[in-house]
Task: structure prediction
Amino acid sequence: MLLFRWAILLLLLVAGVSFAFYAGTGQLKYRRFGWIVLKWTLLAAFGFFAVLIAERAF
Result:
């Protein structure tokens, strides 16, 4: 569980750095990469926490 939390944190950091690069350079490839990483990170995090909630409920 700790490993998954660290992975989510690092992926969110990667998305943030990508958006910072976009703000600094204006290149769309950084924004696009940031959105992709953010989208899949949030989906994985929601899935992970849904499993934790379901585990406690049953």
User: Anything to note?
Assistant: The helical segments are 2-25, 28-57. The chain has a mean pLDDT of 94.
